[in-house]
Specification:
The complex is a heterodimer of chains A (282) and B (230). Chain A is an alpha/beta fold. Chain A is 33% helix and 28% strand. The longest helix of chain A is centred in the middle third of the chain and has 16 residues, at 165-180. By secondary structure, chain B is mainly alpha-helical. The longest helix of chain B is centred in the N-terminal third of the chain and has 29 residues, at 47-75. Classes of the chains: A alpha/beta (282), B mainly alpha (230). Bound molecules: adenosine-5'-triphosphate and magnesium ion.
């Protein structure tokens, strides 16, 4: 099957509270798929359902050709990797001992530990005790933990939320490399730039429903006004509709050497989200 | 169940146990008690004093060790990582039980060796001690599944210690022979073990076995409750 994840009519309630009302989407094998939404929109709940930590109230959920009712099988668990929103490590043990435990639990060769530590830029810290590490370092070890057994599909709940910009770039490169090697990645994020840069497709989650779904660049184009924003050498700012009737005026401005800058409207994903839901994403 | 995964949990918990001062202190308590007793008495110690050591070991090392380890996994949110992995809850619990079992064994053997008593070196008492270990272990697992923080463990360990670990101390409450409390206490596992040394009867072992079954049912209910908790 070409889909790694298939969700249709997913609904999840906690008592009276509806966390996810009606959600349907597919994630193709080999893609990086981003689930975006404001705090409390149900991103973590969705990941928990897709990984078997929570049971859906109703709806069809298939991950790697496995029905949600079989998510607790050893076979299924070996094929996925998870970075949860507040998972943690054994603080008294070293980085190496933490990863060794998960290597053994997932039946992966111990040689993977050094390979994966290299990838998250922590090779020199392998023998340090976890309690002595910074938050960002712990986050990277958790990421290493999620990837140590080379899963087919990984779930990353806000993978870069605790990291500084340098590390974020490093992790992004690592994730892209991983994806090029064939791993499907499902991630949640608040970070629009991250989503634009990494994701093949994104879904906007709000009010328990998916409000829009598509390729980031295509969405930005779809919700663009397509207007031209021109700044002249006289510091005048013009907004001209992308229409043939404006062609002469633009041509004349350029011909007269009066154009300081010219840009077409291209909203960020955050702008698109705001336009759709009236909410900021952060 | 999978031996490699049980082995991985065992190895991890053994390392953690050795680096956890609170857990490391527990096996020392019975040894300390044994040293005190051995200085006090002349000649053979009464059997019920020996069982205070056994009760102290099982409640302080077995039950409380298991509870503390589970509580820590809950509190630090590490249990989630284990459950997400291919390890089953059985793998996790067995791996931990082996660590607790190892420390219980070391602590008990040293304490009893200090007292230099050979009352226990026979088939019947050894069967009894193993059953008693299972009873305290199952209590630890059952309660541990629900203990959300290490700070809470002491609230749970006290009743276990006084009811089941130090049952013979009820003698010192001066309740009188006919007291209903004493009659009930006589059926508690440690009291049955003390009885066994006097009577050599297998009935006592049978009653301890019933306690083990009861503890197993309790643990099973706790497991069911935890696994359907969403
Ligand atoms: N175990 C639970 N019991 C009751 N309500 C819950 C539970 N888990 C989540 N919720 C509710 O479901 C909704 C969605 O929560 P969720 O954690 O999925 O949001 P999120 O999109 O991950 O938010 P954030 O960006 O802050 O991580 C929230 O309203 C939350 O209060
Ligand atoms: Mg979340």
């Amino acid at each position: 099957m070409e889909n790694a994840i298939q969700v249709s009519g997913l609904r999840k309630t906690f008592g009276q509270q509806v966390a996810i009302e009606d959600v349907s989407f597919n994630v193709k094998k080999g893609e990086i798929f981003g689930l975006l939404g404001p705090s409390g929109s149900g991103k973590t709940t969705t990941i928990k359902i897709l990984t078997g930590e929570l049971k859906q109230t109703t709806g069809d959920v298939h991950v790697l050709d496995t029905d949600a009712s079989s998510f607790d099988s050893t076979q299924f668990k070996s094929k996925i990797g998870i970075l949860s929103d507040n998972s943690s490590l054994y603080e008294r043990l070293t980085v190496y001992d933490n990863l060794k435990l998960f290597c053994k639990l997932y039946d992966a060769p111990l040689e993977r530990i050094d390979v994966i530590l290299e990838e998250v830029n922590l090779k020199n810290d392998r023998n340090k005790v976890v309690s002595k590490l910074s938050k960002g370092m712990k986050q990277r070890i958790l990421l290493a933990k999620a990837l140590v057994h080379q899963p087919e599909l990984v779930f990353l709940d806000e993978p870069t939320s605790a990291l500084d910009p340098g590390n974020v770039i490093h992790i992004h490169r690592g994730l892209q490399k991983l994806n090029e090697a064939g791993t499907t990645i499902f991630l949640t994020t608040h970070d629009m730039e991250e989503a634009t840069k990494l994701c093949d497709r994104v879904a906007f989650l709000d009010n328990g429903k998916i409000q829009e779904l598509g390729n980031p660049d295509e969405l930005r184009f779809k919700y663009s006004t397509h207007d031209f924003h021109i700044e002249t050498t006289m510091n005048e700012k013009l907004v001209l509709e992308n229409d043939s009737k404006n062609a002469d005026q633009i041509r004349d401005l350029i011909a007269a050497g009066k154009v300081k800058s010219i840009q077409s409207d291209k909203p960020t994903l955050g702008d698109v989200f705001l336009q759709l839901t009236g909410k900021e994403l952060v | 169940m999978n031996t490699q995964r049980i082995g991985a949990i065992f190895e991890k918990d053994l390392k953690e146990f050795r680096k956890n001062m609170m857990l490391l202190m527990m096996p020392v308590i019975p040894i300390f008690l044994a040293i005190m007793y051995s200085r006090m008495g002349e000649g053979e110690l009464p059997v019920f004093l020996l069982y205070l050591i056994v009760g102290a070991t099982y409640s302080a090392v077995t039950t409380s060790g298991m509870m503390t380890m589970m509580a820590e996994e809950n509190e630090k949110k590490t249990l989630r990582g284990l459950i997400q992995s291919p390890a089953s809850l059985a793998d996790i619990l067995i791996g931990k039980s082996l660590v607790v079992g190892l420390f219980t064994f070391i602590s008990l053997v040293i304490s009893l060796a200090i007292l230099g008593n050979d009352e226990f070196l026979a088939f019947q008492p050894i069967v009894g001690l193993i059953l008693l270990f299972l009873f305290f272990l199952l209590l630890g697992i059952g309660i541990g599944l629900f203990t959300k923080s290490v700070a809470n463990t002491s609230a749970y360990i006290m009743p276990v210690m006084f009811l089941f670990g130090f049952t013979p101390m009820i003698e010192f409450l001066n309740l009188g022979e006919d007291s209903i409390a004493i009659k009930i206490a006589d059926y508690f596992p440690i009291m049955q073990m003390i009885d066994m040394h006097e009577t050599n009867s297998w009935t006592a072992i049978g009653i301890v076995a019933i306690w083990v079954i009861a503890a197993a049912i309790f643990t099973f209910i706790c497991l069911k409750k935890v696994s359907t908790d969403n």
